[in-house]
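seq as requested:
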Amino acid sequence: MKKARLLLLLVLALPPGARGETIYAVTGSSGYPSDFALLRFDSASPGVMQRIVPITGDLWGTEASLELDPTDGTLYAFAFWQCQVLCPYEPVRPFILDPETGASSSADWPGLPFTEGWASDKDIHPLTHELRFFGPGNQNYRYSLDTLDLHVDAPLDYPGSGYAIAHSPGGLDGMGIETFALGYPTEPGDDLYLLRIGGPGGKPSANSGEVTVIGPVDARGGVRGFDISSSGAAYFSTHEYAYGSGDVSRLYSVDLQSGATQELGEIAVPGWTSITGIAVAPLGPGVVEIPALSRTGLAALALLVTSVALRRFAAPSSGSAPRLHGAVELQSELSPLAKPSAKSRVEG
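struct tokens:
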């Protein structure tokens, strides 16, 4: 019993990323329009689905990406019609999704520009509350969700294309909020690369269009979604068509310092569908969040908890064994999709 309780304390003391994090994903079918579904699974076990619901309501198109608003937890989808040959640029339309029912409704965001399909992936800055996305010809956009104004920033100074984009949460190891993207050089057949848009620590910001190549990214298939969790862990999904076995979707983690990847497993998507976007859920209200605590600090915290537990369990006691109901209750209160309080706004 004491060993079991000690193990529970060790698990609870680990950083959230070590326990796995809740990921939402949208899948599309080969139909026209697509039959979309919303999936939920743990990053540590992508082959096991926690929930699958069909997306109903206003959402339509052939593909869609996902984004969670880090200020209030709202889940958005950005859908578009994919056209392969001689098609005009299509508008990417925003929708609000109910993560439990899959119900969708249109978001009224006037002034979003028409962008081609590869630019559908977008990400919301956790402090400025601006939507960052790219367009044809290395165009660099941000759209304020508070004022509904579109800003055209300096174009990306990188001769390639960025498909997927994500922001770091900031505060980790003393770093500011950074903008990352997964992109390809202009030469066909070249590998996928992890890019930083803007400078280290977000200075200068992504508004500058400054691009730094972090390193090559080793993954099978094409990127179909990219997100960074509130713990600082980065994930992306890929899609690959394998002759004889059909569509295969995989989940990877990527090191934002080097671009090194780890395949976490195949995602258990319904038959004849594939992942088109992912979003990592924020931590629930039952977890004591310390955004500014570094990875070193988290490790020290785990050692401290372990040391206290070992001394307490080793000490003789005439009473009953220490109770862990409080820790268990904290874990049980985690909601699938929590809505943290809005963060302060800053210029960025």
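The helical segments are 2-13, 16-19, 295-314, 325-332.
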